[in-house]
Amino acid sequence: MKNLALHWKILIGMVLGILFGLGMTSVPGGAKIVGDWINPFGTIFVKLLKLIAVPLIIASLVKGISDLKDISKFRNIGLRTIGIYIGTTVIAITIGLLLVNIIEPGNGVSEETITKLTDTYANSEGVKSKMQEASKQKNSGPLQFVVDMVPDNALSAMSNNTAMLQVIFFTIFLGISMLLIGEKNAKPLKDFFDSLNEVVLKMVDLIMLSAPFAVFALLANVVVSSNDPDLLVALLKYALTVVGGLLIMISFYMLLVSIFTRKNPFWFLQQLSPAQLLAFSTSSSAATLPVTMERVEEHIGVDKEVSSFVLPVGATINMDGTSLYQAVAAVFISQALGFDLSLSGQLTIIVTALLASIGSAAVPGAGMVMLVIVLESVNFPAEKLAIGLALIFAVDRPLDMCRTVINVTGDATVSALVAKSVGKLHDPKPKNWNDHLDEVKSN
Ligand code: ASP
Prior knowledge:
Elements: H1 6-25, H2 30-68, H3 71-103, H4 111-121, H5 125-138, H6 144-149, H7 154-158, H8 164-180, H9 183-208, H10 211-224, H11 229-234, H12 236-261, H13 265-282, H14 285-300, H15 304-317, H16 320-336, H17 343-359, H18 366-377, H19 385-393, H20 396-421, H21 437-440
This protein binds aspartic acid.
Residues 283-285, 319, 322, 360, 362-367, 400, 403-404, 407 line the site of aspartic acid.
């Protein structure tokens, strides 16, 4: 067991968690026991990952930029990254639209199922809160997201996990200014951040020691709090359309990796797998970010100059899985509720789903909030919105888990492509959690 690769340990934890959760559903009060006594360990794990996200982004981005020595390289990396992110997202949405139009999952949903889902969810707190959040987002102007990116207080940005882009903005500003004051003057600060970076990566290693147990807790809780299995079956065709699209995206990434980086795509996925398994278990690309960074840098060999920018930015703005899901869900709801979507409506979905995935927070369920905005952009009748969301609510959590895996895989793939294109993809040099342990242990 000791020498088993991390991804196997995590996988075993996940399977045992699912089995345990299933067992507990048949025990009276089982869901409460899991919620009270098991789930907190999963929550602690997610909190620990989030705890180190901000210091890790700052330390690694400062190191990445100050290692560059040349600002024009940074512009090069930035433009490529944004360009490829937009490209992969548009492809993801197009795949979603093609599949949902070919399979037409919405046309097979019976009136009875629609009524049952509407009765169960249309007035539920979950659906209401998604719609409220969406109306808050919608009321802002077109350039609001650029304004929001600039913090007016660096410390308050750093104290807020949802302000990742603000932290990135401040750090890039700091890093570029460090380049401009010259190597000698910047050295003390650079040494500090280099060391902080090493320390935070060690913290990732230590946190990951508990990952197999944490995913057990997270998945057991997902299983005991999941919905009526009959409803899940009624939505199977829709769920399979989303999952099919996500699998096509994974194959697409593998193709990109093998063509452009000349690395074996199966090796690539294997190196990334602990991050993917965590994305699945936590449904949050933001919580997974520290692990994604560690895997991509140490195990895939992407230079920090690239990964320190591409990955945090990707976690916030690049969500291929989410945008594919939004495209499928918007058309599925229209099909099921008999709303006629014209070709121009479908083209509008491409643009709004792209913007929505940029605007979606990297946390569980965020994709569904932005789905409201996608639906409104095609003039979906406002009075049917709650019913539309109710239709897909029952399967949202499992689909969220799957789309988060794609979001994380997409970010990692793009970081490898950009790194290769600027000559910054090296042979990986993994570090272990117990490197230097002997030095600090007295015998
Ligand atoms: N949970 C997703 C993420 O964190 C966002 C979403 O699709 O809801 O990447």
